[in-house]
């Protein structure tokens, strides 16, 4: 995420991954203010066993796009509502990638972060049976929690 203040919005991604038994490495890395940290972290990620990135940023959110420029690994972008434009600026910056450098973009804020966690797990489930099982159980529990009537 681009700043420490983004953690509140991005927490649902980490919590969802933890619930599904997927290990994550949470970092504050700014595309604009810590470009060298960003470059070093992303370009050495494969060697550390990282399989994909979830990037949350607000304002002119370049974190996900620049991450995608530095790695062939999947990049999931979560636009955050930290500016006067309530995240619409970050949404457009994240989703409107030029052809050739894809960023899978989610909704603004906490719901987007949660879905990014679920989507990341779905990607990993293709090659990890325990994650697939955890996702099945998550869905079953979610369904069971929906009452048939509001009374
Ligand atoms: C912060 O500026 C935001 O919440 C956002 O993530 C960030 C963008 O960070 P930079 O990458 O531009 O430093 O206030």
The description of the largest β-sheet is:
3 strands, parallel
Trace the largest sheet across and list its strands. Answer: 1-2-3
Beta fraction of the residues? 5-15%
What percent of the residues sit in helical stretches (DSSP H or I)?
40-55%
Number of helices: 6
Average pLDDT reading: 98
Taken from the alpha-carbon principal axes, the silhouette is globular
Bound molecules: 5-O-phosphono-beta-D-ribofuranose
Radius of gyration, in angstroms, nearest whole number: 16 Å
Please tally the β strands and state the result. Answer: 3
> What's the SSE pattern?
HHEHEHEHH
Q: How far apart are the first and last residues' alpha carbons, in Å?
A: 41 Å
Low-confidence segments, ≥5 residues, pLDDT <50? none
Instruction: Look at the helices and sheets and give the structural class.
Output: mainly alpha
């Amino acid at each position: 995420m681009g700043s420490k203040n983004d953690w509140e919005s991005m927490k649902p991604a980490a919590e969802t991954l933890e619930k599904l038994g997927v290990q994550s490495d949470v970092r504050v890395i700014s595309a604009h203010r810590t470009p060298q940290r960003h470059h070093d972290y992303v370009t050495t990620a494969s060697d550390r066993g990282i399989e994909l990135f979830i990037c949350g940023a607000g304002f002119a959110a370049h974190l996900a796009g620049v991450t995608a420029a530095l790695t062939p690994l999947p990049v999931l972008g979560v636009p955050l509502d930290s500016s006067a434009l309530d995240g619409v600026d970050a949404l457009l910056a994240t989703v409107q990638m030029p052809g050739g450098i894809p960023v899978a973009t989610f909704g603004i804020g906490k719901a987007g972060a949660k879905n990014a966690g679920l989507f990341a797990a779905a990607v990993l489930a293709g090659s990890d049976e325990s994650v697939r099982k955890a996702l099945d159980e998550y869905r079953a529990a979610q369904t069971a929690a929906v009452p048939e009537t509001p009374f």
